[in-house]
Structure formats: structure tokens, C-alpha cells
Amino acid sequence: MSFLLPNPLPGTAAAVLGEACVASVGYHDLTPGPTTVEVTDGRLVLTRPQNESGYLFVPWPVEPFGTLVVATTTLRERDEPYRLLVELARGKLNQVRTQTAEWQSIGLRTAPEFERAILDASRQFGRAVLAPTPAESDALATRALEQAHALADQLAREYTAQMLSTRHKDEGQLDTRFAARTLRPPRRAAAEEYTRAFTAASVSFRWRDIEPNESQYDWAEPDAAVAAACAAGLPVTIGPVIDLSAGMIPGWAAGWAADLPTLAACMCDFLETAINRYKSDVRRWVVCAGFNHADALGLVDDDRLRLAFRLFEAAAQVDSGLELILSVAQPWGEYLATDKQTISPLTFPDDLIRAGVRLSAVELEVRAGVRPRGSLPRDLLDTARLLDVFGMLGLPLEVVLSLPSSDEPDREAEQGQSVWHPGWRARPSPEGQAEWGASFAALALCWPQVRTVTWDHWSDAELHLVPHSGLFDASGRAKPLLARLRALRTAHLEPEQ
Q1: Phi/psi zone of residue 215: left (φ > 0), alpha (ψ -120 to 50 degrees), beta?
Q2: Are strands 284-289 and 66-71 parallel, antiparallel or unpaired?
Q3: Which residues of 225-260 are buried (b: 16+ CB within 10 A; e: fewer)?
Q4: For 344-396, where are the E strands, in sequence order?
Q5: Which string of DSSP letters, residue by residue, matches 390-410?
Q6: Are 297 and 353 in contact (CB under 8 A)?
Q7: Which fold has domain 175-492?
Q8: Where is this region: Disordered (predicted)?
Q9: What DSSP string runs through 145-181?
Q10: Where are the domains of the chain?
């Protein structure tokens, strides 16, 4: 497929076109396949091994939202190029119209002004298609694309508000767990802030810090964090216990790269040791994370699937009554646009379920604007569709959210993780983090199948994965997001203690 680019090409767009990819028709999760991208002679050219129709996904600057991944409708392969902005506007407008009709069929009420705005955007799109010159077409399509995104945002927020209202009428205050991940117990003043904002505790640690040398453990920090959570009366989740991100595995274990039996033995031993230590107080465990995404330790896709199976099997053998959770990285599947990996984010847990693994829930990492572990930025409507797709597994869902509040160097962040700069309308800020975090947390809370919403992580003073994504900065000052999350807890969850 090829697409005619606007002239002049926006500078931000030029920097992100290499992230474009194509998803084949027929897959519910719309994950991409291996795609070769070339920009030449004012065209975006995408080549794939198979010849079939598909959806184009491409990051594109959309005012006033910044750079977001935008999708076309289904396009067939042909010699004639498509006009990129027309197809992006068509795709987003189609998504809004389709989702509006679907939600209206289950009771969503939309205002007459919203319906008129959809008609106006549709007319704007029609003028873009019929425009006599490329410049006019691109200008009109840009306006239609912006209108469609504004409508998508409005639709998702209205759905969130009405769904929360409906659930409150049926259930009262929601019992969804609301947490932030910590490595150590917050100090006294911060501990009070934690219990005001959250209803549950989430304790995380890095294997390399707990067992820096084989069979030599240091449990001081997780011991204190679990004890503090129990003292506060908060239900506790521990994990992910094994994370395949770079820097999470101790050096002595990483030395067994590509040796699946030995790696499995080492990981199962650590997991069993952790569970046996805390199982009297902690019944919920995120067993592993990043296994669907990480190209690590010389393990191919099938190796990581087998390894995950072994870990869940080992945990269940320690205590068959535990709740065991799989965490899925990059749930939109951007990593599949290369030919290195083949198992989609939806297929990975499905394969484990079919193999007999008893999963209590699937956790989705919605980490926006960070690479390589995070995802490219999506809007609320795309995230709603993601929750729908993973709902097809028939399991409870858990959502982990993170977004940087700064692009300055972060000494405590995991090396190799960095802010994806083209994705920002302006530089990352605490205010931007607060608006994004509150909006996406509310969307997750309204979803009946989501039983836990976790902000990852609590403080930038602790070791963490995503740069500057904590609720407190490194000097101990609370960021605006903390107050927004506390307001969500007060409005929708059990009251403060």
C-alpha cells in the first residue's frame, strides 16, 4: 500500500512515520504484522510478506491532543496510492459512528448537539474527498480528523460517566481495587496520603535486588511494605515477581541466557521462595510480566510461553488457592511490526489458558509515550476498544497505568526506558500527567470486567520502570495526579478510612 503525504509534511509527522504498520483483516485484536516502511517522493509506502487487505496504523499529530496512533478503515492493496489524511479521517470518523451506535444499543444517551457534530464532521469529510486540489483535500481532511478525535474523546467520557452512574445505582460504591505500586512502605505523612487515595496495596520488587547472589536474599524492603499494608488493613498484591525487562534479572541468572531448563529452575525457585514467605498475608500474585513482549535472555516466543507455563504451574503447586495473574506488555502489539516475535498480546494468555493454566486475571500495561516497554499514545476510545477485546478471554481484567510527568533525566528509572518525545503536544508535565491519569483511570474504573486499577508507581524516589511516572517527585512533593486519583476514590469507591 502507498499513501500520498501532505505537502508540507508536519515536522512531528516526519519523525514518526517509521512507526507505521499494517494489521491484517480478520483478527479481533487488530495487532500488526511485520511491515517494511519507506518514505519516498512524498509517499508513505508499506510492504508486507502477505498480499491482503488491512488497516494502516500510524502515529499522527492531531490538535489539540498531540501525536496519537490513528487507524484507517480496511484498505485493499492496489497500485494507485491513497491520500493519507483522507483515509485517517475516514477511519476515525467510522470508529466514532460505529462505537456510538454500539453503545447507544446498550443504553448510552447522547445529546442532540453530539449527533449534529457527527453530521458536521461527516460533511467535512465529504468535502475533503471531493476537494479539487490536494492542498484543499488535506486541509479539509485535517479538520475532519480533528473533529472526529474531539468526538471520540467526548463519546468516551460520556460513556464513562454514564457507566459509572449506572453501576452506582446497581452496586452502590464500587469494590474495584485501586492501588499504586510501591517498593517500600511510604513514610508516615505519605502513608496517610496513600490510604486516602487508594483502597489496596501493590508491592513490587526486582529479582536482581532481592537475590543479587544465588540463594542470598534481602527481603527487608518487601517485608516492611507488606507489614505496613497489612497494618493499614489494605489487601495486598505482590508482583510482578519475574519481569523480563532489561535490568530486572540478576546477573548470575542472566548468565544462563538461552538455557531454558536452567532459567526455568532458577525463576521457579525464586517465585516459590517469595510465595512461601508471604502467602499467609498475600493471596494475589502477578506471577510474570513482559513475557509476551521481551526479546530477552535468548528466548524465542515459544520458550517464553513454556517458561510462563512453568512459573504458573510452580506457583499453583505451592498453594492452589492463590490468585495468579499474568501481566501483558504493549497490549496493542506494536512489537509485532517486526519479524522478531509472533505471539500477539491476546494470543499469549489464550495459549496459556488452552494449555490448562489457571489464570485468575489478565493485567494490561497501559504505559503511554515510553519506549521500549510502553505503548505509543492512544486515545480513550481506542483504550475502551482494547478492554473490549481482552474481555473476550472471559477473565477479569486488571489495568496498570503510567505516564511521565517530565522528560528530564531520571536517575532511579530503569536504564533503557525513555520518553517517546514525538508523542507530546508539549513537553511532559505534571498537569498533563494528572489529566491523562485521571481520565484513563476513570475509564478503567467504569468497566465492569476490570477488578483492579493500579498506578505504576508511587514515588520517583524509588526504583521504577517508567521515567518520572510516580505520584511523588524525587524530592517528595506530591504531583497533581495524586489529588485527582483521591477524588476518583472518594466519588466511586469505598470511603476514606
Answers
A1: left
A2: unpaired
A3: bbebbbebebbbbbbbbbbbbbebbbeebbebeeeb
A4: 361-367, 370-371
A5: HHTT-S-EEEEEE--S--S--
A6: no
A7: TIM Barrel (3.20.20)
A8: 406-427
A9: HHHHHHHHHHHHHHHHHHHHHHHHHHHSS---EEEEE
A10: 2-164, 175-492
CA–CA distance, 442 with 267 (Å, rounded to integer)? 36
Q: What is the pLDDT of residues 118-177, one digit of tens each?
A: 999 999 999 999 999 999 999 999 999 999 999 999 999 999 999 999 999 999 999 999
Model-level pTM? 0.95
Ramachandran sector of residue 476 (left: φ over 0; alpha: ψ -120 to 50; beta: rest): left
Instruction: Show the cell assigned to 320.
Output: 492452589
Going by their DSSP bridges, the two strands 370-371 and 418-419 should be labelled as antiparallel
- Report the C-alpha gap between 9 and 3 in whole angstroms: 13
- Parallel, antiparallel, or unpaired: how do β-strands 36-40 and 370-371 relate? unpaired
- Among all chains, which residue has been given the C-alpha cell 443504553? 107
Cβ-based neighbour number of residue 274 at 10 Å: 25
CB neighbour list of residue 37: distance below 8 Å, 6 or more residues apart: 17, 18, 19, 20, 21, 44, 45, 46
| Residue that has been written with the C-alpha cell 475532519 in this structure | 144
- Range scoring the smallest mean pLDDT among 217-221, 364-368, 464-468: 464-468
Of all residues in the chain, what percent are helix, strand and coil, respectively (each to 5)? Answer: 45, 20, 40
Q: Which residue has the cell 528509572?
A: 413
3-state secondary structure of 84: helix
Report how far residue 228's alpha carbon sits from residue 180's, in angstroms, rounded to the nearest whole number.
Answer: 14
DSSP labels, 224-264: HHHHHHHHTT--EEE--SEE-STTSS-HHHHTTTT-HHHHH
